[in-house]
Amino acid sequence: MNWIKKQVNNIVKKHKTNCPFEVSESKNIHVVYWDLHSEIWGFYKYERRNRFIFINDNLEYHRQRYVCAHELGHALLHTKVNTPFLQANTFYSIDKIEREANEFAVNLLLYDKNLEDYETKFECLRENGIPLEMERFL
């Protein structure tokens, strides 16, 4: 089991849920719904020892759930990393950080799911509101 799966496993066992909204609340991470540009699904922000997940309130619920899980991955795995700042002001590649947050989200949302219960991986992703591009994390 890789380290991200271990993190997810520990979180679900501790909080007795794999719901990203509930985990965020119990970890005192503020989830804020905001009218963001349609191209921005959400983002994570760490400021003065406070953690915030901003979610585009124009998204459908299943997409908001995925965004919350992804940004929760940032909050727990990369607590003090500001990816928009890195992207805009440095040459630092954020690919690894984004990949880890995606892997965290997929593992969290599919924690109690059995892939054998689905015809295909894509059916599993679709039924659980996860973007099909995340297939590589199954």
TrEMBL record:
Residue ranges annotated for the IrrE N-terminal-like domain, each copy included: 25-121
Xref: InterPro entries: IrrE_HExxH, Rad_response_metalloprotease
Entry-linked Pfam families: Peptidase_M78
Protein name as catalogued: ImmA/IrrE family metallo-endopeptidase
